[in-house]
Design a protein that fits this description.
Layout: H1 2-13, E1 23-24, E2 33-40, E3 45-47, E4 59-67, E5 74-86, E6 91-100, E7 103-112, E8 117-124, E9 133-141, E10 147-155
Antiparallel strand pairs: 1-2, 2-4, 2-10, 3-4, 4-5, 5-6, 6-7, 7-8, 8-9, 9-10
Length: 156
Amino acid sequence: MRKKLALIVAGVLVAGGGTVASLVASSSASAASTVKVVEHAVTDTVIDIGKPGDSRGDQLTFGNKVYDATDTTVAGSDQGWCVRIAPKKGSWECVYTTFLAGGQITVETPFYDTADSVGVVTGGTGTYSGASGSLDLHCYVGTDDVARCDFTFNLN
């Protein structure tokens, strides 16, 4: 179950979607703001590259719906990919975009099979044009047995 969650969460990590879940402070990327969405990691696909099994260089691709901060209404989607870096340490490196009603937010972040991580916001479009800042990533399995990741974008 942990490996399934890790793979799902890794895919969930990086991408995006439709409507802003939670926007605090300002809707402008030039002013500090926080946007939170919840990804449901249901489309994650691991591609076994090189040595059979979980090994360095394996890839994970995904494109999932993201929900508002209350995890009740679809707010957009995400899409991205991760590369397995260190299987024994449970680490991936991911790049993804989250698509929301006001625009897109793109990130690069480590993803750990069993721990939270912090990534970097590398840019955005629309409302998020010129965005920078950080991503707090927390993944878990919901009560419905669906893997989820909380994306908290701390925008500058």
